[in-house]
Write a structure and sequence with these properties.
Length: 343
């Protein structure tokens, strides 16, 4: 196959005001640069979109710097190595990378790149339940929450790839009760029937605190929160003594204007109930990914961990896939298919 000379990528066209819209993004064609010594050229097969990317589209504080107008949107992809100048990967290898939303990517020799083993699992899982979302669930529970058998667990945005994996891993780890929040009948049915949660509570109901209390009358030992401050504040009185709160993400706050995100008011429960709250950036645990991935892969092969994907076709659909995270009733890891996997 001749080396491609040009590729397409999705860039930030303007900063979103509130929820992102597809026209906040542009698709641009650009020449593919030389592969540097130590690097590789990768043809992407599929990519995923992450809600946390929203925090990089606005000016202001985040754990990562804001993207500039015209910069490629960040994200994870599975690709095939088509040129290599490094001993880390060979032509024909399949890899998961943080290439961003593009059809080809020149790996510069540093940053996230992981060889995908040849096995029976679908490739897209390496940017889903075996990738960043699944690893966030794994290390959020194992390292941050220190989940113990018998714990009562509440997971917010439970139908998303992070939440659904966290809820099921909590069960595998011996949780006595697993409750999730989600909106809509389809998500609720999937979480009860496929992911086997004990109960699902619609977070949009007006009596949410009472509904959560009824869902676990003895309270919660672990809150795995994907949603943000208002939800955490509402849950603080529901935490059991010694409770642990994992701050995974802030879905309800990503689209808020600076200054509009509310603070926590119920902090007295940290004292009375000796609570602990800790955030994570999943890449801090990168060295431990392979063993966690092996164990999650085994659960999937044994049919003991359910996952869901929602698919889009072609790079041009990446902005829509991303915007749907905040508006659509669809759910599951959003996968944008770009090219056929090699036979
Ligand atoms: N800390 C880390 O290292 C790390 C790594 C990866 C991901 N994360 C975080 O993990 C969280 C979950 O990620 P994910 O990929 O699994 O996404 P996700 O949960 O699938 O996110 C999309 C879902 O969020 C819910 N949502 C959207 N707006 C909301 C709002 N205003 N309030 C409450 N829920 C809302 C929607 O569900 P409903 O229809 O039910 O509202 C939507 O389907 C995100 O916050 C992400 O940033 C953290």
């Amino acid at each position: 196959m001749a080396r491609p000379t040009e590729t397409r990528r999705i860039v930030l066209a303007r900063r979103p005001d509130g929820a992102p819209r597809p026209d906040d993004f542009d698709v641009v064609a650009a020449p593919i640069g030389e592969t540097p010594e130590g690097g590789a050229l990768i043809r992407n097969l599929c990519l995923s979109v992450d809600p946390g990317t929203r925090s990089r589209l606005s000016e202001g504080a985040s754990y990562a710097p804001p993207l500039k107008i015209g910069e490629t949107i960040d994200g994870f992809a599975v690709g095939e190595v088509i040129e290599s100048r490094t001993s880390r990967v060979s032509v024909g290898d399949l890899v998961a990378t943080g290439s961003g939303w593009c059809e080809h990517w020149v790996f510069p020799g540093r940053g996230y790149i992981q060889l995908i083993p040849h096995d029976s699992l679908p490739l897209s899982l390496w940017i889903g339940v075996l990738g960043v979302p699944g690893m966030t669930a794994w290390f959020g529970l194992h390292r941050v929450a220190g989940l113990k058998a018998g714990d009562r667990v509440l997971v917010t945005s439970a139908a998303g790839p992070v939440g659904a994996t966290a809820a099921q891993l909590a069960r595998q780890m011996g949780a006595a009760r697993v409750v999730g929040t989600a909106h809509g009948a389809d998500k609720t049915r999937w979480l009860l029937d496929q992911a086997k949660l004990d109960q699902v509570v619609d977070y949009r109901r007006s009596d949410l605190a009472e509904a959560l209390r009824a869902a676990s009358p003895e309270g919660f030992d672990v809150l795995f929160d994907n949603v943000g401050n208002a939800m955490i504040d509402l849950c603080l009185p529901l935490m059991r003594p010694g409770g642990r709160i994992v701050i995974s993400g802030q879905l309800a706050d990503y689209n808020a204007r600076p200054g509009d995100v509310r603070g926590l008011a119920n902090t007295r429960y940290f004292i009375a109930s000796r609570l602990r709250m800790e955030g994570l950036v999943v890449f801090d645990d990168l060295k431990a990914f392979p063993e966690a991935q092996r164990q999650v892969g085994d659960l999937i092969r044994k049919g003991e961990l359910a996952y869901r994907e929602h698919r889009y076709s072609g790079l041009d659909q990446a902005p829509l896939a991303f915007c749907d995270l905040f508006t659509a009733s669809t759910f599951g890891r959003r996968i944008v298919d770009l090219a056929q996997a090699p036979a």
